Amino acid sequence: MDWKRLVQFALLGGSDLEQYAILLVRVSIGLFFAVSGGNKLFVAGGTKLVYETLVKANVPFPHQTAYFVSGVEFVGGSLVTVGFLSSPACAALLIDMTVATLTSALSTIPKGLSLLNWLDDFLYFPEVLYVLFFIWLICSGPGRFSVDYWLAGKLLE
User: Fold this and answer.
1) Cα–Cα dist 30/69, whole Å
2) For residue 19, pLDDT beyond 70
3) CA angle, corner 128, sides to 124 and 129, nearest 5?
4) What pLDDT, in 10s, does the model give residues 138-152?
5) Cβ–Cβ < 8 Å for 92, 72
6) CA distance 122 to 124
7) Is 62 helix (H, G, I), strand (E, B) or coil?
8) Helix (H), strand (E), coil (C) string for 95-114
9) What does the pLDDT read at residue 62?
10) C-alpha closest to that of 31 among 76, 62, 72, 86
11) 36 C-beta neighbours (distance < 10 Å), count
12) Tell me, what's the pLDDT at 1?
């Protein structure tokens, strides 16, 4: 047993495994948004809940916005899944989740909470976690196992 490598891995992680972590997160979150957006767009009544949420939040043009948001989720999620135009797709989905948090999720936090309890409720929202994943993917790039990586290699030869 190489104790030095074990301690190094425990303290610094395994950079040789990083590409697999990026792949796992990118494909998982991409598939989630592609399927979610696809269900909203292509299943009868799929945009109904989005529409009702937008009406409740007083978002202008709720019918058109429901289709737009669903389209962003479907197209953006599909692009993130395969790793093509990953950073712009992540940016679009990051904006989508930020707006969802501000227009819908925040209103569910009870009034009068202490700062720590409010932060606990806020960080519990899945939208916040998605935003963090998108920031990470924008900063790390889509990884070695992506169309973007292959394309960059071809364009920069």
Assistant:
1) 15
2) yes
3) 85
4) 999 999 999 999 999
5) yes
6) 5
7) helix
8) HHHHHHHHHHHHHHCCCCCC
9) 93
10) 76
11) 15
12) 65
Report d(CA 129, CA 26) in Å as an integer: 13
In this prediction, residue 12 has a pLDDT band, given cuts at 50, 70 and 90, of: confident
Give the number of residues written for the chain.
157
Which helix (H) or strand (E) element contains residue 8? helix 3-12
CA R_g for the chain: 19
Two tokens at 29? Answer: 């979150």
Question: Mean pLDDT across the stretch 54-60?
Answer: 89
Summarize the confidence of residues 80-108 as an average pLDDT: 94
| C-alpha 106 chain-centroid distance | 18
pLDDT band at 15 (very low <50, low <70, confident <90, very high): confident
Residue type, 63: H
126-140 helix and 115-124 helix, angle to the nearest 10 degrees: 70
**Average pLDDT of the residues in 109-129:** 94
Report residue 50 as tokens: 């989005």
Handedness of CA 127, 128, 130, 134 (dihedral sign): positive
Report which DSSP code applies to 157.
Answer: -
